[in-house]
Every structure is written in C-alpha cells, then in structure tokens.
C-alpha cells in the first residue's frame, strides 16, 4: 500500500508471510489502548489470507485482499466510517471543493440497497426525476445488494459524458424503473439568495464547502446593497447534507455575536474533545477573513431557519447553535440526526480512512447524534402533509448507526415517521405532484416562515394541523448570553 503504515504493521507482516505474527506495536497504535492485542484473531486473519491465496478458484492479488480487509473492518463500525482507496480519496477531495463527476445524489445505505437522501439540485439525477426516498437496486444491471455504500458510489462515478443505468424502486410503485443517466461534472454552488417578497430575504445553503463563506458574504452583501431595510431573513437548510465543519462554524458566526461557542465535540481521545468558537482561527485560519464583508445587519435581523429530515451534520450544527442562543426560530421537521465527527486519517500518499472519532454537541450541550434538531415550530412540507419528508430515512434508521446518548446500544432501527399509513398518504399525494422548488411560489414552509415574520397564523404540523399566531417580529429574541464555556482545547 505504498508507504508502510505503522498502525497496520503487525497485521501486514504476519499476513503476508503466512506464518506466526511478529508483534511490533507503534506508539500511535497503542495510544489509548488498555487491553492486549487479540493475537488469536490476528492469526485467524493470517490463516484466512493464506487459504485464499492457496485454495481460491482463481488467483487474487495481495493488494486487493488487504484493501478489502481494511475496508470491511472500517465499514463494520458505523455507516459513516469508510476506507478510501486512491480513487475514493481523490473524489472526496474533489467533492469538498464543490465539484465531482457523477450523477448528483446524496445517498445512504438501507437494507442492503442504496437509498436516495436527496438529489442535488440541477444535477443529472434531479433532471431524470430521481427523488428522495427512492432505492437504487441495480447499477448497470449489477445488483447493489451486498455492496458497501462506498462501492456503490464508485460505480456511479466515472468520466464526464459516460452513462450509467440505474434501476430505481419507489414505494407505491408496482415495478422498478430503469433510468439511464449521463455523468457530468457536478459543480455545486452552495449558496443561493434572493428577495422572496419586499423586505424579506431567502438564503439557501445546499452544502457546506470550502467556498461557502465567500459565497454567503458576497450574496448577502448584494441583497443588502439593493434592499437595506430587510425585515426578516430565512436561512434555508432543508436537504442540506452537511459538509465541512469550518463552514458551519463560519455561517453560525455570521449571525451571532463574536466569540460565541458554536459547537463542541467529545470522543475517546483527548484531541477529540474540542470546543469551537466564533473566531477566525476556527472558520478561516488562512487567507482573508471571508466574514469581513458581511452586512452588519445579519447579526440582528429577525431570522427563521428552515430544516427537514434531509438536513444533516453541518446544517444541524448551524440550526442547533442559532436555536440555543434564541437567535432564530427553527421551523420545519426534525433533522437527520447525523451528529458524529469523521476524521481523515491518511494511510499513505493517496489512501486514507474516514473514521468516526467524536460526537457533536450544541452550545447548550445537546447531543445531535441520532436525535437531530427538533424545530421550535413543526411545519409540514405541504399544506396536505409532510410530502417527501415522510419517506426520508434518518440516522436512527441506519444499520449500525452510532447510538445517541439516550439510546440503548443495539436498539433496532425504527421508523421515524410512524407507520405505513402515513407513507401511503404521502405517496398518493406525491404521485402527480411536481418536485418541490425550494424558494418558489409553491413552497409551503417558506410561506409559513413569511407568515411568522408578519405575525400571521402559521399552520403547524400534526397531531392536528392547528393555527397559532406567533409574536410580532419586534418580539423575536436576540442572542442571549453565551452558556458556560465547555472544557476542551481551543485549536
């Protein structure tokens, strides 16, 4: 695997030799370890390697066996820990820069299949009619059952202009349907902004990338240049799967007083116990401060944050921080609940593992993992019901998900949307409905956010849809005094 990897040295030496293991444990591998290494199991691994090399029907390369062994070991931990080979590592670096070649979908694993969390706006998959909640059962007619989520993603990546054929199963449909999709370079502009009504602004973040803060600063500055008396701002984080932590810290900082605690992490290692504040060192340690050009009014303008079951990770950090400080009203439905930290650990120059190392906590110490962010005002996706949101899988539904703090280990995946009856109603409503355009004239949740600003009745979600009259905009609270500082290094 290129450079020797200290953490895998004891396994590699014994396995490749096919004889007794030579145990040389590096300080890195021993860090935090209180129990001896399981030598019997390591010998079994060496034995299995030797049997495959000698007895399998066709020869298998050493590199393939070792890569698959590493991948299986990491994938067994939780849905977000992944071994990145050369191709996957390169693609991951491209995606955080806001571009990659593929079909444009955010996915998760469900019952051995690939579940669509959400199609990326304006992507080939989006234009092909693929929707959140769909299951991919075959890729180029190859069953995905049994494939890791990483392997399935690899099969959907490729060269620009090449085609991939997806077999899609949709709840409520009698038969799967086959759709050819042409791969293209997906350039995700992470921020959109516009005036949805006179005096009311809408800012959407679709994903937290390296350029998110620069885009946010430029687009909000342009809005305020043309509309200096904005009375309310809607921050739309629906279907935002997350992304880079510095982006989440920076976006939160843009709307909060300086120096506030934004998020903290807790894990097994000392380095995993951190507190992140609204300081440049946490959101932009190099180059110019992207928030320097942000309009000052963003610190005080009344806000509503829209979230749903597709809001995950970094978007939950932002929603949780703004909710804890009562800087904004969070509206919509409970978020995905992906509150775990993935740390990239390079193994060589072009391979790495993405390993879950900690859990995220809001400024007031609420755990996000498996819980998500519960909105202040629960509003369904449409006037008739919760639409696609009723079909979305959440973190708690994923197999081997990292348990939440109040969740018992081994708790079976549960349906976060209360049964088949509601799903069938949602499917019936969706059958002849066009895909929702977020920020468009038919966006029901956006309309309720505007009603909230204006002091008009807001139609709330079940158990029964009721109308309440919220406080007038002038009564919206500003940022409170920050909570006590959590312990942890500040780096």
UniProtKB/TrEMBL annotation:
This is S41 family peptidase. The keyword GTP-binding does not apply. Keywords: Hydrolase, Protease, Serine protease. Belongs to the peptidase S41A family. Residues 400-423, 465-491 are annotated as: Disordered. Residues 482-491 have a biased composition (Basic and acidic residues). InterPro entries: ClpP/crotonase-like_dom_sf, CtpA/B_N, PDZ, PDZ_6, PDZ_sf, Peptidase_S41A, Tail-specific_protease. Residues 89-157 form the PDZ domain. It comes from Massilia suwonensis. Pfam families: CtpB_N-like, PDZ_6, Peptidase_S41.
């Amino acid at each position: 695997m290129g450079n020797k990897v200290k953490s895998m040295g004891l396994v590699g030496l014994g396995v490749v030799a096919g004889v007794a293991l030579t145990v040389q444990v590096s300080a890195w591998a021993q860090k935090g370890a209180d129990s001896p290494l399981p030598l019997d199991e390591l010998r079994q691994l060496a034995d299995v390697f030797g049997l495959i090399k000698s007895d399998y029907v066709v020869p298998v390369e050493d590199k393939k066996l070792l890569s698959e062994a590493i991948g299986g070991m990491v994938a067994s931990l939780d849905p977000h820990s992944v071994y990145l080979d050369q191709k996957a590592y390169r693609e991951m670096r491209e995606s955080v820069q806001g571009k990659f070649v593929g079909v444009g979908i955010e996915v998760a694993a469900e019952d051995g299949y690939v579940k669509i969390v959400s199609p990326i706006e304006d992507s080939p998959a989006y234009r092909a009619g693929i929707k959140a909640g769909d299951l991919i059962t075959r890729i180029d007619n190859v069953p995905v059952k049994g494939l890791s989520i990483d392997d399935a993603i690899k099969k959907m990546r490729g060269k620009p202009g090449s085609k991939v054929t997806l077999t899609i199963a949709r709840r409520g449909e009698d038969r799967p349907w086959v759709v050819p999709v042409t791969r293209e370079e997906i350039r995700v502009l992470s921020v959109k902004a516009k005036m949805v009504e006179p005096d009311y602004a809408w800012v959407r973040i679709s994903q937290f990338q390296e350029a998110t803060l620069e885009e946010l600063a430029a687009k909000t500055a342009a809005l305020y240049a043309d509309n200096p008396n904005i009375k309310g701002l809607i921050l739309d984080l629906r279907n935002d799967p997350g992304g880079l932590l510095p982006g989440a810290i920076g976006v939160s900082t843009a709307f909060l007083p300086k120096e506030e605690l934004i998020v903290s992490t807790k894990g097994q290692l000392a380095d995993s116990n951190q507190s992140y504040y609204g300081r440049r060192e946490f959101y932009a340690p190099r180059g110019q401060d992207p928030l320097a050009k942000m309009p000052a009014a963003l610190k005080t303008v009344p806000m509503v944050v829209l979230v749903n079951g597709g809001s995950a990770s970094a978007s939950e950090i932002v929603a949780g921080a703004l909710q804890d400080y009562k800087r904004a009203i969070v509206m919509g439905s409970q978020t995905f609940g992906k509150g775990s930290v993935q740390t990239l650990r390079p193994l060589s120059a072009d391979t790495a593992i993405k390993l879950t190392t900690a859990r995220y906590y809001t400024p007031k110490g609420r755990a996000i993992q498996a819980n998500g962010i519960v909105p202040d005002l629960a509003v369904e996706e449409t006037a008739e019901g919760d639409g696609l949101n009723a079909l979305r899988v959440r973190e708690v539904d994923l197999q081997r998900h990292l348990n939440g703090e109040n969740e018992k280990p081994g708790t079976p995946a549960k349906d976060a949307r209360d049964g088949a009856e509601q799903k069938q109603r949602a499917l019936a409503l969706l059958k002849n409905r066009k895909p929702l355009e977020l920020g468009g004239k038919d966006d029901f949740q956006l309309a309720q956010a505007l009603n909230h600003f204006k002091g008009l009745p807001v139609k709330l979600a079940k158990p029964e849809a009721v109308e309440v009259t919220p406080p007038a905009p002038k009564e919206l609270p500003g940022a409170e005094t920050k909570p006590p500082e959590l312990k942890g290094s500040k780096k």
